[in-house]
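Entry 14. Structure prediction run on the chain below.
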Amino acid sequence: MDENTALEDIKKGLYAALTLFILSCFMFFIGVISAPSDALASFQDTWYLVDIVLLGLLTLAVYKKSFLGFVALLIYVIVGKIIVFLDTGQLKGIIVTLIIIHFLIQGARGAKYYHNNKRQLDASYKPQKRWGLIAAIPTFLLLTLSAAITFLEQSNYLVDQSIKKGAEVSDSQYKSLLDEQVINLGDQIKYFNAHGVLSNLEGGNIITQDSIILYDEEDVYSLYLDDIVALEFMETSDSDYTVYKVVGKGDDYWLTLVVPANDKMKGEVLGMLRRTIKQNNAPNS
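Output returned:
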């Protein structure tokens, strides 16, 4: 490899980084201007802005021919894809990701040769590490935190408090709910949202094929879906959660539904309940 080849490889790596950054910005923009949906939920999360800022810093480090910047971006892309796979079980965009990884590896190789060659030609040459460090340090901190949280959730040390569809509820989770008589044998879970930290049995809401359930470690409350007639918003001081009063037929016949305020599934759950209520309140129902 000579210096010209190294510079060409760096340029290819830079183009890959720019492509990743521009695509991320574009998807966030689409998410902002679009109505809430499951497909765009991850791009509509304000935390996605952190991802864009980090990608911008890493792209700037790559532009400065930082070998550390290339390595940090490579690790960020690979570990990020692994974390997404563990969370969703899907590998969307894997072909594009592999192409980007290929060019980033080329860029890293070119940057390493470029700086080594400069040192051989000039013993006093010292590559600028500032941009690489500025980009790499927050990247590694964020990846470490994300990986730790994902590991704890996957290992069941921490409860995943997002709303899950029934198909996402594991056999062991279903069995534990059945054993504690939160649900009955034959119940089909449509939606499940645990409120606990260390155990799914600390509390939560469940919607089955015919009931909505609120439970904690001591009690289980339920309403038949055919009996609910209203869904009322309840004030709460916790901005992370939205609380609703699900009202049934008859006096003092209600329970609370607690959902994460920014959960991508929130709209789907509320929409299903409102359709059920509309049907229940229709004439001759």
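The beta strands are 164-165, 189-194, 203-208, 211-216, 220-224, 228-234, 241-248, 254-260.
Filed with the rest of this week's runs.
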